[in-house]
Amino acid sequence: MTYQAPVRDHVFILRDMLNIDQHGQLPAFADASFDTVEQILEAAAQFTGEVLAPLNTVGDKVGCVLDPATNEVTTPPGFKEAYKQLCEGGWTGLGSDPAYGGQGLPHVVNLAFSEMSSSANMAFSMYPGLAHGAYSAIHTGGTDAQKELYLPKMVTGEWTGTMNLTEPHCGTDLGLLRTKAVPEADGSYRITGQKIWISAGEHDMADNIVHLVLARIEGAPAGVKGISLFIVPKFLPKEDGSVGERNVGAKCVGLEEKMGIHGNATCVMQYDDAKGWLIGGENAGLKIMFVMMNEARLGVGMQGVAQGEAAYQAAAAFAKDRLQGRSLTGPKNADGPADPIIVHPDVRRMLLESRALIEGGRAFLFWTALHGDLAHAHPDEKVREKASDYMSLMTPVLKGYLTDKGFKVCSDAVQVHGGSGFTEHFPVSQFMRDCRIALIYEGTNGVQALDLVGRKLASKGGRAVMTFFQEIDQFIGENDSDEGLKPFIVALAEVKAQMQDGTMWLMQNGLQNPDNAGAASTDYMHLFGLTGLAYMWALQVKAAQAKIAAGSSDPFYSTKLITARYFIERVLPDAGAHLTKLKTGSETLMALPAEAF
């Protein structure tokens, strides 16, 4: 089985559900007519399927190798050549600023490519993915000179980038970080400290690696208020932009032995008086780093969908090929010794649930990414405000909910394979191992849930979530008389009411006892995720029914309707359980003394 990019679904979401052509008057969409986008998607599918997917198993089996004498990392066989093709194809600059050599396409189009590359080879796709995040941080917070020096090379992929936050004693609680920065007379800084779990921290595919490092300038305030951000390149750039001498104080001193993503170098980075330059103001590092982190969180949500898609494809192919038992309603493969397992209702349950989660999750991701484009590009301040609110509110939901569900899809794919799925002869074990990190990094899903209920809900007086409720109400009102949409409208109205109930409970009980908010947070995040998917499925059904009404007999659309019905009948009822659980509060959770565990 080989990965086939779901171009048809991408086309349906971008053209029929989101109608991105309606934004053609905006500069960011001027060169993104749907005909152009469709050609990009087809080319992306070919590249990811033919170049990246065949290297996925190689990356898993061989992994990365660190030479302790030189502190240099060799990537798996074929990665370097594939990366060169990636750059030559212009894929690294797809969504980047034309002022620095990028193609300037909407972020939602870049996300579609990123999903394909992550499905094909998650470990490989992390190298350019992190580089784009570093590019975004420099683009947002760098000086004009820094942008001119670094961004053109990062857009072409000649240079990659990383984000350095975590330290051995300090993960999510960045206020504890100890890496220090000492100013030099020439305006640079000497950076000293150790960072761990740095993805793509060292490799042999690019001419330079631009590390973005959080550190504390001597004398800075304690806690997060005293954190600054520094550019610490592997090689010191010359004024003409070429690569200069080695930044000898910055090196990889170890590679993590991991459950998955073996093809990505997860490094222990040691900085000993490494030369760095401040980006943004002193003690303003987190503000700029969060540009990169929020982009990364959306990217991680995408990874959940991407690994789920790859695992679903493998499971569906296996289920149609594997002969085992007979159909409960009589043989379907009468001439054979047994029926393919696709005839069994429980196998279909796992496959349909996987499909409902992945296609709903993809629509939710693309819908949110489009708002990200509008937040930057739309001339109407109100549209930009709403889009920016949505980006802030949806990011923890997409990261947490979609990685949880992506991992479930991978687990169910193993189950569909039976004993074969537990072996390394089939690809699904790798998909499951690779996917597992997505629930952890860029802030664990529990942290995402806390961010959602502790910060995002209450931000600006709850404006973002109230706007979301109003948008759903408006959609329900506009489509309530559509008989074909009726079951989906009823389901959407019900889950929206449940989410509203949960939101009000949090507002009333979370403030008086913060543990209540903490105890309810994960269930609320899942309730939000289900509400988002219910809305996305209603939008997809409306678009599919319009195509059918216009005379299309393409089975793609009727399949959409069946998958949507499965979602509202057999996935969406979980919302009621999440609401019930979140309203129990924290009393039982916090009752046991710590020593009882």
Q: What is the compact description of this entry?
A:
By secondary structure, the chain is α+β, with helices and mostly antiparallel strands. It has helices at 7-17, 34-52, 56-62, 79-88, 107-120, 122-141, 144-156, 285-321, 345-377, 381-417, 428-436, 445-456, 463-479, 486-509, 514-549, 555-571, 574-582; strands at residues 65-67, 72-74, 159-164, 180-183, 189-199, 208-217, 228-233, 235-237, 243-246, 250-255, 266-279. A five-stranded mixed barrel has the order 4-5-11-7-6. The protein has a two-stranded antiparallel sheet with strand order 1-2.
Would you write up a description of this structure?
- By secondary structure, the protein is an alpha+beta fold.
- The protein contains 17 helices and 11 strands.
- It has helices spanning 7-17, 34-52, 56-62, 79-88, 107-120, 122-141, 144-156, 285-321, 345-377, 381-417, 428-436, 445-456, 463-479, 486-509, 514-549, 555-571, 574-582; strands at residues 65-67, 72-74, 159-164, 180-183, 189-199, 208-217, 228-233, 235-237, 243-246, 250-255, 266-279.
- A hairpin with a 5-residue loop joins strand 4 and strand 5 (189-199).
- The longest helix has 37 residues, at 285-321.
How is this fold's topology laid out?
Layout: H1 7-17, H2 34-52, H3 56-62, E1 65-67, E2 72-74, H4 79-88, H5 107-120, H6 122-141, H7 144-156, E3 159-164, E4 180-183, E5 189-199, E6 208-217, E7 228-233, E8 235-237, E9 243-246, E10 250-255, E11 266-279, H8 285-321, H9 345-377, H10 381-417, H11 428-436, H12 445-456, H13 463-479, H14 486-509, H15 514-549, H16 555-571, H17 574-582
Helix pairs in contact: 1-2, 1-9, 1-15, 2-5, 5-6, 5-8, 5-9, 6-7, 6-8, 8-9, 8-10, 8-11, 9-10, 9-15, 9-16, 10-11, 10-12, 10-13, 10-15, 12-15, 13-14, 14-15, 14-17, 15-16, 15-17
